[in-house]
Design goal:
Blueprint lengths: L1 H9 L23 H29 L3 H22 L4 H20 L11 H20 L8 H13 L13 H8 L4 H40 L2 H180 L1
């Protein structure tokens, strides 16, 4: 039985399988995040412990046979160890798949496998607990699987249950995570590598905390198992438990040292890769800028040549149109001038002819008037001349009288 405790403790320090690339899995929701799924799996494991412990304690409380109570206690210890190794994997998607498969395997083991008569009348209580845990796993799967019926992941779970049945002790269970990673694909590239390194470090710290929180209860469960063991095996079991407890700090220290070395190497590799990519990017950007500049200059030169040719052609077209318009305008002006001159000549001839006729008519009319008026005006002229002479004589006499008067006054 001490081997159970040693395996449970060692489950947190074993080398993890490859990490799957969640963003490359076609049947996952696009918004599914590894960190959120990891948090849900940690919560699942906490509820897993509570459900298994509650079912096992209830079965032990109802059992009157010491062997049944011991079987319930052993089942609790083994199920917790298996749940820890499945639900606390570094890759949350692989942890979900392994935990779901574990629930299905445990149910088959309780209904159709070696454990179908383990608890007698209380067998249904254990089956109900496993069904409840599978329901929790299915609820988590619905948060990451895009298909409403969960068909892609459920098909792999069904296949794993058939391929890896629990046909012996519970701790002999074989995990199908390697096959799952091969089916889904591994993470690659700097981003996935850095994320895997950070997640691995966080998972190791989380597992150490889980082990620390579970250690008192596991020690108590082991102590209860030891009480139920025959006295002959008590000393050997106690020694194995003590040895496991003594080697735990060394295992933790070795794992921490190995993790530190691994993280240092990964950090150097990432920095080298980043430097190489940065240099390659700078060179590529330089080539792209130079090529783009050449293409822009060529395009500008071609555009300038095309614009000059278009302007020249347009200018020649305008000049030709202006010359044609000018020639047509000159011809029209000449034609209009000739027509105007011809019209003016005709009008002039008509006017001159009319003026000549009018002048002759006027001359003849004046001559007739003069001839008619001369006999009548001759008397008027003579009367007018006589009157003027009379007025002149009167004016002469008046002036003479005025002069005489003025001289007299002056003397």
């Amino acid at each position: 039985m001490a081997a159970l405790f040693g395996l449970a403790l060692a489950s947190c320090t074993t080398t993890a399988p490859p990490v799957t690339a969640m963003r490359n899995v076609a049947w996952l929701r696009p918004e599914a995040k590894p960190r959120a799924l990891g948090a849900r799996m940690s919560e699942f494991f906490a509820r897993y412990i509570a459900v298994i412990e509650g079912a096992a304690d209830a079965i032990a409380a109802e059992a009157s046979d010491p062997a049944a109570r011991r079987a319930a206690l052993a089942w609790k210890v083994e199920c917790v160890a298996l749940g820890q190794s499945a639900a606390l994997r570094p890759d949350p998607l692989a942890a979900l798949f392994d935990a779901w498969t574990l629930c299905r395997q445990l149910r088959v083991e309780l209904t159709d496998g070696p454990g179908r008569e383990r608890f007698g009348a209380a067998q249904s209580r254990a089956v109900a607990a496993i069904d409840r845990l599978e329901g929790l796993a299915v609820d988590i799967a619905r948060t990451v699987v895009a298909s409403p019926d969960l068909s892609p992941m459920q098909a792999m779970v069904d296949e794993a249950v058939v391929r890896y049945p629990i046909d012996g002790p519970l701790l002999s269970r074989q995990s199908p995570v390697i096959d799952f990673a091969d089916r889904v694909g591994e993470a690659g590239g700097l981003a996935e590598l850095a994320a895997s390194m950070d997640k691995r470090a966080a998972d190791v710290a989380q597992q150490l905390r889980v082990v620390g929180s579970l250690a008192p209860r596991q020690a108590r469960w082991q102590a209860e198992l030891l009480v139920a063991e025959p006295l002959a095996a008590l000393v050997e079991t106690t020694g194995r438990v003590a040895s496991a407890l003594e080697t735990l700090p060394d295992r933790v220290r070795d794992e921490r040292r190995a993790l530190t070395t691994w993280m240092r190497g990964e950090r150097e590799a990432i920095l080298e890769a980043v430097d190489a990519q940065r240099l390659a990017l700078v060179r590529a950007l330089g080539d792209i800028v130079a090529a783009e500049r050449t293409r822009v200059l060529e395009a500008v030169a071609a555009e300038r040549t095309a614009i000059l040719a278009a302007v020249k052609g347009e200018r020649e077209t305008i000049l030709a149109a202006v010359a044609a318009e000018r020639a047509a305008l000159v011809d029209a002006i000449d034609a209009q001038r000739v027509a105007t001159l011809e019209t003016l000549a005709g009008e002039r001839a008509i006017v001159v002819d009319a003026a000549c006729r009018e002048r002759r008519a006027t001359t003849e009319a004046v001559r007739d008037v003069v001839e008619d008026a001369f006999p009548r005006t001759r008397g008027l002229i003579d009367h007018f001349v006589l009157r003027i002479g009379l007025l002149g004589a009167i004016a002469f006499v008046a002036v003479t009288v005025l002069v005489i008067v003025l001289r007299r006054r002056a003397s």
